[in-house]
Amino acid sequence: QVQVVESGGGSVQPGGSLRLSCAASGSISAINVMGWYRQPPGRQREFVANIFSSGNTGYADAVKGRFIISRGNARNTVYLQMNSLKPEDTAVYYCNALIGANRTWGQGTQVTVSS
Questions:
Q1: Which helix (H) or strand (E) holds 77?
Q2: 10 Å Cβ neighbour count for 18?
Q3: For residue 36, what are the β-bridge partners?
Q4: Which of 51, 67, 88, 112 lies 20 to 30 Å (CA to CA) from residue 11?
Q5: Tens digits of per-residue pLDDT, 40-70?
Q6: Is the pLDDT reported for residue 36 higher than 90?
Q7: CA 112, chain centre distance (Å)
């Protein structure tokens, strides 16, 4: 069993930056991939970025070059550094951990980009 908890959301003006954190607990050594998804208002949840146990990363085209996913030294924390934020980045951001075919979601953290 794995649990994940997000933190770091908030409100920022366009062009600003935020860093989200995701802390995993439980059977963290079994995690294959950790990632971030987001759900904009009135839309379906969408992929943002992920990081594999190997350290390889992947990004959605919409955030490539602006967002950076990384892992803490303790390997149970994943960060999402969000730069050059746009109003269309406004969403609830969810962290998840994948073990085999089982995906565990956090409760989400709100990010609002507005002037």
A1: strand 77-82
A2: 20
A3: 49, 95
A4: 51
A5: 999 999 999 999 999 999 999 999 999 999 9
A6: yes
A7: 15
Please report which confidence band the pLDDT of residue 74 belongs to, taking 50, 70 and 90 as the band edges: confident
C-alpha 97/C-alpha 33 separation (Å) is 6
- CA distances, 53 to each of 35, 58, 95, 97, 104 (Å): 11, 12, 15, 11, 16
Our measurement of the distance from residue 70's CA atom to the centroid of its chain's CA atoms, rounded to an integer in Å, reads 10
Between CA 38 and CA 45 the distance in angstroms is 5
SS3 114: coil
**Full DSSP string of 26-66:** ESGGG--EEEEEEE-TTS--EEEEEEETTS-EEE-TTTTTT
Grouping H, G, I as helix, E, B as strand and the rest as coil, residue 91 is strand
For 108, the 3-state DSSP assignment is coil
Q: How many residues does the chain have?
A: 115
